[in-house]
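Bit of a strange request maybe. I'm writing a small parser for structure token strings and I need a real example to test against, not something I typed by hand. Could someone generate the tokens for this chain?
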Amino acid sequence: MRRYLAIVAACLCCASAASAMDIPTRKAGQWEIKMQFMDGKLPARAMRQCIDQATDKMMNSSIGGDAGSHCSKREIKNVGGTMVVDSVCQFGAGTTTSHAVVSGSFDSAYEVDVTSTRKGGPPIPGMAPNHTTHMKITAKWLGPCPAGTRAGDIMMGNGMKMNILDLQKMRGVPPR
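Reply from user aminoacidic:
Good idea to test on real output. This should exercise your parser:
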């Protein structure tokens, strides 16, 4: 379970390097997100997220705190209809430098191609210290959230279910 949480946290951190005001919110409902690690060292992962506007803004702006206060560089540019995000962020004792290209629609389907280099800090399970990760994320809107789910629910491919709002509360981070 720790490995899944580490992978989810790493992916969400890479995807949330920009502030909520810079990245449009996704359409409310259930999204299927597939992550493919291009180095082949970690298997592809899939999850489903149930979001509303508030939880999506929270996930974009905060994974354990305001990403903006941890980033010395955050540049978002519109280049030929795609969003290009470059960032340098400090997470604990480690520094992550990321370059992401986002294309598609936040109402139906989008892709993120992100390369991140992490230096320093404690090791992440399954990743070498001072490593570079190339990941492709594809996301597709599936429709309204199914009965029995609530905004913030993340359903992993292995059947594990967690809620990002509950995780924030456990860490003592007030809801936004």
